[in-house]
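Suppose you are handed a protein chain with no further information: no name, no annotation, nothing but its sequence. What can you learn? This example shows the usual starting point.
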Amino acid sequence: MTRILTKQELHNLAMNIVGEELEKRGYEFIAINSKLGKHPQFVCVDPSNQRYFVLVKAVSHPDNPHNYDVIWMEAFKKHAREQDAKVFYAGVGLQNAEDPNKPVFLNEDYVLEYAGLQMIETHLN
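A reasonable first move is to predict its three-dimensional structure. Written in structure tokens, the prediction is:
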């Protein structure tokens, strides 16, 4: 049975992609929040015990996964500074492999556009 992935399922897929990268880089997870609209999705630490907040956003074609809401990010950067944390943004573009104008379907191929973790400078602005 073919069905369109829900927004939550697309978000979970994006989180899995980002979570695998964090694991490969040696980050230790402190907290994971997979609820759509809750931030950050990952709270983790690196080997030197530096805390990171990781914001994951699943983006569908034709939107650009590398863009984020700058005004909202300013409020989040303030929160990160207060918690002595650094911020990564991970925009994950997902689109139907056969036709970018169609949605992503369960158990069907998709195209991934993911440039990796993007460091957000918390001390700027």
